[in-house]
Structures are given as structure tokens and as C-alpha cells.
Amino acid sequence: xxxxxxxxxxxxxxxxxxxxxxxxxxxxxxxxxxxxxxxxxxxxxxxxxxxxxxxxxxxxxxxxxxxxxxxxxxxxxxxxxxxxxxxxxxxxxxxxxxxxxxxxxxxxxxxxxxxxxxxxxxxxxxxxxxxxxxxxxxxxxxxxxxxxxxxxxxxxxxxxxxxxxxxxxxxxxxxxxxxxxxxxxxxxxxxxxxxxxxxxxxxxxxxxxxxxxxxxxxxxxxxxxxxxxxxxxxxxxxxxxxxxxxxxxxxxxxxxxxxxxxxxxxxxxxxxxxxxxxxxxxxxxxxxxxxxxxxxxxx
Length: 299
Prior knowledge:
By secondary structure, the protein is mainly α.
């Protein structure tokens, strides 16, 4: 049958099939394909196609959440993260490795640090600072004769001094929890800055209950929650109830200047993961957590 004039089929049969077989057209087509391929390679390698989405890309635009995330990334690049230490680890006997672990994060460039370039105190160092204060109050009262080996003068001994007396006589043993002979042989914190490991969990009950603001500030989120024991200077009972061993504790850190650059996020995550792996190998079970690790670690 006859093909009607000016149809696609007629054009393909009469004109295009003849035109496409010409050497000049073949050469131009190959050249054009090579140019497009070169542009694609340049776009990938030259401009740097990166993995990942911005956090603001996963929420609807024109919402307050989108505006907040967009502004946060654009002007602050601020995120919280936590270094978590977990169970099957003897905290009282291994305090030094916990301090070393926390100090290792000072090498992470995106962490907010103190004016002197160090890291803020965390739950264990705040716990120690409080005990040092209690020890000093006891030492001062003992030197002034307000506290003696057999007890204290209720009329003039300080509340912290009396608390120090009660803590110093804790043995850490359930069968014989109090021993007054320890009063002058014990120190709440030794010369190396380590909390007395024998009564560590007795002291923890006292710190958690009587220095609640510092505990809350530390964001330690200790699990199980330490046992409550509130000090009353008028109470002559010396027993300080012991908390259960820690199986989970957090050390908070603050990240800044990260923006939405996935490569920068991944570099930070690799740095943090390297620290965690090192201390995992040293016997401290730990892991990092926070939004950067939830959203970007897949890259």
C-alpha cells in the first residue's frame, strides 16, 4: 500500500534511513556522544557529586521545622552527641580509662571545648569534685575538734563534715557495711584523683541524692538509676545505702560548624568511631550516639 505523504513512517523510510547511514552523520553522532560522556564525567569528578541528603530535605518545606533545620545548618551547624559506656565493666576499679576515654575526644576538631582547649566535666569528674569538697569539710572539722574518731559535736560540726564522716566509714560490703576504724585510714578521693573503689557505689548514692543539680547537669543518665539516700546531719545512723553497679552511662559532647556537608559529617563520624574502637580494644565497651550517627552514618 502507499504510505501517505508527510507521515513519520514515510520520513523514517525515505529520509532518515538514508541520512543516518552517511559517514559524516555517524562521525558527528559519535563525537556528540563522546562530548556528552566527557561532560558527565566532569560533572561527577570535577564538581564532586556527594552522597547524602541534608536533614532539611526530609521534612516538608514551608514548615517551621524546615525553617528551623535550615537556619540551624546555615548559621550554627550545632548537634548533640553522647559517648556511651556500658555494662560488663568495673567502673570503680577502672576510673582512669574512663577519664582517658573522655579526654581522647579533645582531638575531634568539631567539638566545643573550654576556653583552655579542654573538655567540660562529665558525671565522673563532677562526682569526684563533690567528694573532694566533702573531704575538705571533714578535714577542717576534724582539725578544729568538731569531729573526732568516735563521732561529732552536733552543735558546731558542719553538715558536709558529718556527711564526710559517714562516707569515710563505709566499707562497701553488705555483711559489715560500716567500720569506724576506716575513718582516718580512708580518703574519699586518693592522691591520684581516683574515688575510693571499695565504697564507690555508697558514695554514688550520696552524690545522686544530695548534689542533684550537678548530677542533672552532667547528663550522665546512669542506668540503673542510683539509689536515693538523703543526708540528715541530725541522724546518727552511719549506714549509706549502696547503689547497683552501673551498666550504662553517657558523656555529653557538643558538635559545631558541621552544616550539611555529608563528607564533613562522615569524617567526624570516622574520627569518633576510631576513638571508640581503640577503647573497645582496651576493654571499655562503648559507642557513640546522637543525630549525626543516626542520620549520616549510613554514608
